[in-house]
Specification:
heterodimer, A: about 325 residues, mainly alpha, 2 domains, three-stranded antiparallel beta sheet, about 10% strand, B: about 290 residues, alpha/beta, Rossmann fold, Alpha-Beta Plaits, six-stranded mixed beta sheet, four-stranded antiparallel beta sheet, 9 helices, elongated
């Protein structure tokens, strides 16, 4: 059965291996150049950051985003092309009626197929993730943003979980739809839905977010991501500010600014009104003893979150494989 | 007589559609059994139930006294050639033989290779580029090289031209002749002429029910066409069971089942060909006419 699976899967696997080899060459080449530039840059910089560090991100934005997109897309494509065709193609061409009457049961047939193709999917995605994580690590040290939803999914071990899940999802959808093309489309759509839903609704709650009150002093104000007014234009517009914390995942984009009595301020009640500008001056605000409350997942939870999310996806993979096995005996009976 | 396949009140429904109803029959050992019936009669369903591709809605089916496809050993004893003889289009003939060798513990590699040679198949040819007849022969090769004790074939020649049809049935008979302990074969078709040549036992399936079941010689010896002046069906003597009746204004024609021909000056009672016999059963009263098991 291993031989047959490999014989059927060979062409698809070689295509993926070729794509992986091309990506490896490109990212290795760019990554080595990036490391040279990074060393040059940090050598002339004081510890704690360099003003023109962000320029490095701009210079390498093409390989950087290519890498991210590759890691994000790989499990989806694997699920559609490998997973969905795994069972659906056999049902579509009727070859299941040939192979299920050889001397092995259909349970073992599915197990071997899922394990082999699943392992290949995890290996390919794992290598790609390793490569992209390695390439991007200098830029992540500058950007401090690897915990943000998009990059979190394109680094570390979670892509392995996604890949295994995508194969099981594709096989399961293929079994129930029995049409390869339809199964590919549904697998892509379902996988995309999960990938949108998880960072929005699941990942923020893997652990209780940290709630903290941050004083808006001169430093905070200077490095604030957002500072301004939202809502209806006029005196009642809410005064909001948003800040970044290095390597942490800020769950609140911006929060209402409050004064020392915990009153939420508006355009009309903020203490530094200046008729000439919409925005109050930072100097004045820094003296006004203001603060905001933020919710975030701190930087040291990055790896625990990676492992937890991987485990969740592996559990989903097992559940889908069990459902597929059940369906193989029930639905096709 | 040992039963190879035994079904009791076997029923298969797909949603509200009944594909096979209340089917009770026995396939005796060492026979070549023809399963005949119009399209949609339940032939495929019965064969797929027997090889374990389908599970019954109710009733039971047993092969060698056990549920079909119970385990690898059971699967190894049954060869199945599915309708339209599916093969892996991207795999070569040699790949298919390798597949059979890897998946079947009792695989007879010499037999498989000899057959491929005799058939003149190119081992490096992809099966997607074979003709229908060649593909059917490849599927048959896969099934027989397992050295099955029971070989099930679902309309294997339906899509073939007369020459390929003949060659296929020839191959099938060679397998039956060569098998050491006389394998049992069940072959379905909607053409009686295909079956007449190779089968010694016949099961007629129509309207998802078994209409007739028995040795072909017995069936031929006990079915008659009876032509008389017009008379009602119930005026025929006891011991004759009417399978099918046709009346014109002056004449009645019955197909009856009886132990022997009865001489009577008022009628002509003559034997029936197999084709007519089957047709009579197919156009019979839809009420099941179950034959006693022998």
């Amino acid at each position: 059965m291993i031989w047959l699976t490999w014989r059927q899967f060979r062409a698809q696997f070689l295509v993926a291996a070729a794509a992986l080899a091309a990506a490896t060459a490109y990212l290795l080449y760019s990554g080595l150049a990036l490391r040279d530039d990074y060393r040059e840059l940090t050598a002339g910089c004081p510890t704690g950051g360099c003003s023109d560090a962000n320029q490095l991100i701009d210079t390498y934005s093409l390989p950087y985003w290519t890498g991210c997109v590759l890691v994000l897309l790989a499990p989806a494509l694997i699920g559609a092309f490998w997973g969905a065709s795994l069972v659906a193609r056999e049902l579509e061409t009727g070859t299941h009626r040939l192979v299920w009457n050889q001397g092995i049961g259909r349970g073992r047939w599915l197990t071997v197929k899922l394990l082999l193709v699943g392992a290949a999917a995890v290996a390919v995605t794992g290598l790609l993730s390793l490569l992209v994580s390695w390439f991007a690590s200098p830029l992540d040290r500058i950007g401090h943003d690897r915990f943000t939803p998009l990059l979190f999914a394109a680094r570390g071990v979670v892509p392995l979980g996604y890949a295994a899940f995508a194969v099981a999802l594709g096989a399961c959808v293929g079994l129930f739809l029995r049409r390869t093309v339809a199964a590919m489309a549904v697998t892509l759509a379902a996988f995309a839905a999960v990938q949108i839903l998880v960072p929005l609704a699941v990942r923020p709650h893997l652990e209780q977010p940290v709630h903290r009150v941050v004083a808006l002093d001169a430093d905070t104000l200077h490095s604030a991501r957002t500072l301004g007014f939202t809502g209806t234009h006029g005196p009642s517009a809410t005064f909001v500010a948003g800040i970044d914390m290095p390597d942490a995942w800020m769950l609140s984009d911006s929060s209402p600014v409050q004064d020392s009595d915990n009153r939420t301020l508006t355009f009309g009640t903020q203490p530094c009104r200046d008729s000439s500008h919409d925005l109050p001056s930072e100097d004045c605000l820094a003296r006004a003893n203001l603060h905001i409350a933020v919710d975030y997942q701190p930087a040291d939870r990055y790896w625990p979150f990676q492992w937890i999310e991987t485990a969740i996806f592996l559990a989903l993979t097992v559940a889908l494989a069990a459902l597929t096995t059940w369906g193989l005996h029930r639905r096709l009976g | 007589m040992t039963a190879i396949v035994e079904t009791r009140a076997l029923t298969k429904r797909y949603g509200r559609r009944t594909a096979l109803a209340d089917c009770t029959l026995t396939v005796p050992a060492g026979r070549v059994v023809g399963l005949v019936g119009p399209n949609g009669a339940g032939k495929s369903t019965l064969l797929q139930l027997a090889c374990g591709l389908l599970t019954p809605t109710s009733g039971t089916v047993e092969v060698f006294g056990r549920p079909p496809a119970a385990d690898g050993a059971q699967l190894g004893r049954v060869g199945f050639v599915a309708q339209d003889t599916p093969t892996y289009a991207a795999l070569t003939v040699a790949d298919h033989l390798r597949l059979g060798a890897k998946l079947n513990p009792r695989w007879d590699a010499a037999l498989a290779e000899r057959r491929v040679r005799q058939l003149g198949l190119d081992p490096t040819q992809r099966s997607g580029r074979l003709s229908g007849g060649q593909r059917a022969q490849l599927a048959l090769t896969l099934a027989v090289a397992k050295r099955p004790e029971l070989l099930l074939l679902d309309e294997p020649v339906a899509a073939l031209d007369p020459l390929a049809r003949r060659a296929f049935l020839q191959s099938l008979m060679e397998f039956v002749a060569e098998s050491e302990s006389q394998a049992t074969v069940v072959l379905s078709s909607h053409l009686v002429s295909d079956l007449e040549r190779v089968c010694d036992h016949l099961i007629v399936l129509a309207g998802s029910r078994v209409q007739a079941d028995g040795e072909i010689d017995d069936l031929l010896a006990t079915h008659f066409r009876l032509t008389t002046a017009r008379r009602d069906t119930d005026t025929l003597p006891a011991g004759m069971r009417v399978v099918n009746a046709e009346h014109t204004e002056r004449q009645s024609t019955f197909v009856v089942r009886a132990e022997r021909a009865v001489d009577d000056p008022s009628w002509v009672m003559e034997p029936l060909g197999l084709e007519d016999l089957v047709l009579a059963h197919l156009t019979a009263d839809p009420r099941p006419v179950l034959e006693p098991q022998r």
